[in-house]
Amino acid sequence: MRGLAKLNPMARHRAQCAHVRAQMSDYLDADLDERCARAIERHLRWCPSCRHLLQSLRRTIEGLNALGTIGRRGDARTTGP
Ligand SMILES: [Zn+2]
After folding, report:
1. Cα separation, 56 vs 73, whole angstroms
2. Which of 32, 48, 54, 73 is most buried as measured by Cβ atoms within 10 A of its Cβ?
3. Residue 72 CA to ligand 1 centre (angstroms)
4. What confidence tens digit (pLDDT) does each residue in 7-34 have?
5. Domain count of the chain?
6. Which residues have beta carbons under 5 A from ligand 1 (an ion)?
7. Whole-prediction pTM value?
8. CA 10, CA 16: separation in Å to the nearest integer?
9. Smallest Cα–Cα separation from 12: which of 22, 2, 21?
């Protein structure tokens, strides 16, 4: 995050939100290293809007996983010419 110190607090907050949101799916997949995950958790503690976004993203991923299970079952049924 280059040049953040020059920004005012609101712009800085928004830049952090963008950073957290960009990494959110990796965070949910546990693909981030410890330090990045900690930084996101710290941000989420005082940013309700990112926390809300994380919850809805988590729900979306759970929904997709459920659909994937149904899809796989469907594929097995329709295999053939
Ligand atoms: Zn945020």
Report:
1. 26
2. 54
3. 36
4. 788 898 899 999 999 999 999 999 999 9
5. 1
6. 17, 47, 50
7. 0.69
8. 10
9. 2
